[in-house]
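Running co-folding for iron/sulfur cluster.
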Amino acid sequence: MNRETAPLLRVEGLSKHFPVRGGFFRRVTGWLKAVDDVSFQIAHGQTFGLVGESGCGKSTLGRAILRLHEPTAGRVILDGTEITALPRRALTAARRRMQIIFQDPYASLSPRRTVLQTLLEPMEVHRIGTPRTRREKVLELLHIVGMGPEVLHRYPHEFSGGQRQRIGIARALTLDPRFIVADEAVSALDVSVQSQVLNLIARLQRELGISFLFISHDLAVVQHISHQVGVMYLGRLVEIAPAEDLYRDPLHPYTRALLSAIPVPDPKRRRKRIVLQGDVPSPLAPPSGCPFRTRCPEAMPLCAERAPRLTQRHDGRAPHRVACHLY
Ligand code: SF4
């Protein structure tokens, strides 16, 4: 496999379990399996859309990949380096190649720092360049995200939500990352501003060859910028497919229900709305067998007995994996 065809990111059997403590001595009384045995890959310069309802473990998975949460088990390999095996000091250096963009740019930007200070800081911390080259880089980054030098000495509160997210993106780019986790990066923005920021992310991915893990609770948001899409439910990936395939031919009953809620203007392509019953079960006490069985319109006795594994559909079409006993 040459470098172009090898995946940039490989996630293998990644889990993140949080201890649940109780009683007077705060003993561990159980484990919350926020992410459970998740595996997938992202190719160079491609976007993987990760979708699911809030609380399904998407953000924990994004943070576990970057080791902002220390994984409980599994491996993360970025461009040939096993991130999960790196000692702390080496991890700090490796962080240059992987960045995160948060949902709320206002909370992630210091209110007391100007745009210039915000964008200079990562380069100063990693001792990259000279004062002159750093300043040139800041101007270049602002240009990339569609802003000019007039914003250099302004503070976050002087910008709109969309502009602040552009500054957040520029900051994520300061160290020339290969991989960015965008965690609900457009969820707090108005629909028209959302599409501007999505277009910007798609352009960065195309022109700079950056790979993205784009996390969203909304399947409609990830549709146009993702090459692959993964659907998560109660800490597990239940379906992974090329974006086009997943939207045209969703297999998992959960994916079908999520897709049926997206409004489609063309009446011929409209799907029958599938309304899911009940709430997402507590990850502290997930159902036996298939985690989706308590809400699945197609559940059968086997679903309570055995958890379906994520398996490849064998019909010779694009790689499409699903975890469901129907297939
Ligand atoms: Fe539904 Fe059973 Fe498939 Fe789970 S395994 S999604 S319960 S049909």
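Result summary
Residues 250-327 form one domain.
The chain has a mean pLDDT of 90.
Job closed.
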